[in-house]
Amino acid sequence: MLSEREILSVLKMLRSEHLDVRTITMGISLFDCADDNVKSFTGNVREKILRHAGNLVAVCEGIAVKYGIPVVNKRISVSPIAVAGCRFDAGEMVEVARALDGAAKEIGVDFIGGFGALVEKGFTRGDRALIEAIPEALAVTERVCCSINTASTRAGINMDAVYLMGRTIKAAAERTKDADGVGCAKICVFANIPQDVPFMAGAYLGVGEPDVVVNVGVSGPGVVKKAIDRARESQPDMDLGRLSEIIKRTAFKVTRVGELIGRQAADALGVPFGVVDLSLAPTPDVGDSVGEIFQSMGLPNIGAPGSTALLALLNDAVKKGGIFASSYVGGLSGAFIPVSEDSNIAEAAREGKLTLEKLEAMTSVCSVGLDMVAIPGDTTAETIAGIIADEMAIGVINSKATAARLIPVPGKKAGEKAFFGGLLGEATIMPVSNAGKPGDFITLGGRIPAPVQSFKN
C-alpha cells in the first residue's frame, strides 16, 4: 500500500518526470486461424484481431484520461507467423504481413509484432519461407515487426540461422534504402526470447500463452534520474548501496502504476491480464534517457569505464523493485540501451565516447542487447552475422534474453547520421571493428552446442 507521501511523489512523476505506461500490448493467438488457403487465413486473422482488439485504442485512451496517466503506445502481438502460417511460401507470407498491417492500421495501433520464427534448433519449411519474406514484407508495410529467435541456453546457437539473418538484414536495408534502412529497425534477432514481450520490435505471443491477453510495458528512466538527483543533492555522501535502494523503491512505484493500468485495460477489454514488463525504456526526448542516469550516478557519460558495473546495479535494482510490486513480472524487465532511441546514448555514440565494443560488453548485464545500432552500409553480411553471434553467445552463456537490432544504413559511413523518425529516433553510424572479417567461421554453419548449464532437468 502506498502512503500519502508516496502517492504525491507518483503524481509528481506524472507531471514533470516523464512517467508513463509505455505500451499496452494485446497478445492474440492465431493458431485457430490456420488454413491452407492464404486468403482464408488472412481473412480469419483480420476477423480475430478486429474482434478482440477493435476497442483497444479507445479503452487505453479512456483509462489514460480517467487516471491521468499517459499510455504512449497501443500495440498487438500475435503467434509466430512461421508456425501459424507454416504451409505458405514466401510470397504468401508477404500477403500475411500486409493483412497484419492492414488490421493494425484499421484499429489504430502503433505496431503489430509476431511476424517471426523460432529457429534456435533448426528450420521448418514455414520458418524458411517467413525469413525469405522479411525484406519484402517490411518494405511494403508500416507497422509490422519481426523477431527471430536463433539461440537459447537449452539449444545452443543455430549458426545457419545467424548467417541467414545477416544476409536478411542486408537485404531488408537495401529494400528500404530510401529511408536509411528503416526496415532493419523492425527486426530483432534474439537469444532466449521471452514469450510475453510487450515491447517492439521483439513482441510476439508464445505458444504457452492464453488465447488473448494484455501485457503492459512501463518505463520511467526520467523518474529514476530525478530520484537519484534528489537523493544525491540532499545527501552528497550517499553510497552506491543506498542509491540502489532509491532505484529499487522508484521501480516499485512505477511498476504499481503499470499493473493498475494493465489490469484496468484487461478488465475493460474482457481478457486476462498477463505481465508487467518493467523495463526502463527511453525515448529520444530530453529528460527521458537511460544515459542521463549514468551521469546522475557520477560517470561523465555512458561508455566511460565503470559503465558496465553501473548498468548491472541499475538493472538489478529495477528488477528487485518491480518483483516486489507485482506477482506477474515478465517480458524483458530491466534497462534498455537503444542507441537511436535515447538522446543521451546517441550523443555519446556521436562523440565516440561509446563504442560498439563497449556497448557489447554492457549487453552482458542489460535487458536486451545491441539495440537500434546503426552501422556502415557496406558492412558485410558475414560481419553482421558475427556481431549477432557474439550477442547470442552472451545470452546463451548467461541464461538471459539478448537481441541484436542492427541497421546497416545503405550508402552511409561511420560518423554520418541516419534518420528513422518518431520513436525510432536518429543515430550516428557507429564504426565496426576492423580487426578482421569473420568469413570462414560464419560460413561453417551448424549449431554451437548448448552450454553445461542447459542440463537442468
Uncertain residue segments: none
Order of helices and strands: HEHHEHHEEHEEHEEHHEHHHHEHEEEHE
Gyration radius, in Å:
21 Å
> Given the C-alpha coordinates, what overall shape results?
globular
Tell me which CATH architecture of the domain at 220-237 and 276-447 applies here: Alpha-Beta Barrel
Strand-residue proportion:
15-25%
Q: Kindly state the mean pLDDT as a whole number?
A: 88
Main sheet properties: 12 strands, mixed
Estimate the helix proportion, in percent: 40-55%
End-to-end separation in angstroms reads: 39 Å
Number of helices: 15
The CATH first-level class of the domain at 220-237 and 276-447 comes to Alpha Beta
Describe the protein.
This protein is α/β, with parallel strands linked by helices. It has a domain at 220-237 and 276-447: Anaerobic Ribonucleotide-triphosphate Reductase Large Chain (Alpha-Beta Barrel). It is built from 15 helices and 14 strands. The chain has helices at 4-16, 38-53, 56-67, 81-84, 90-107, 125-139, 159-175, 221-234, 240-269, 290-296, 307-325, 343-350, 356-362, 381-398, 439-443, and strands spanning 21-28, 71-78, 112-113, 117-118, 144-152, 156-158, 187-191, 212-218, 273-277, 370-376, 402-409, 417-419, 426-428, 447-448. Strands 1, 2, 3, 4, 5, 6, 7, 8, 9, 10, 11 and 14 form a 12-stranded mixed sheet that branches. β12 and β13 form a beta hairpin. α2 (38-53) packs parallel to α5 (90-107), α5 (90-107) packs across α6 (125-139) and α8 runs parallel beside α10. The longest helix has 30 residues, at 240-269. The two termini are 39 Å apart. The model has no long low-confidence stretch (mean pLDDT 88).
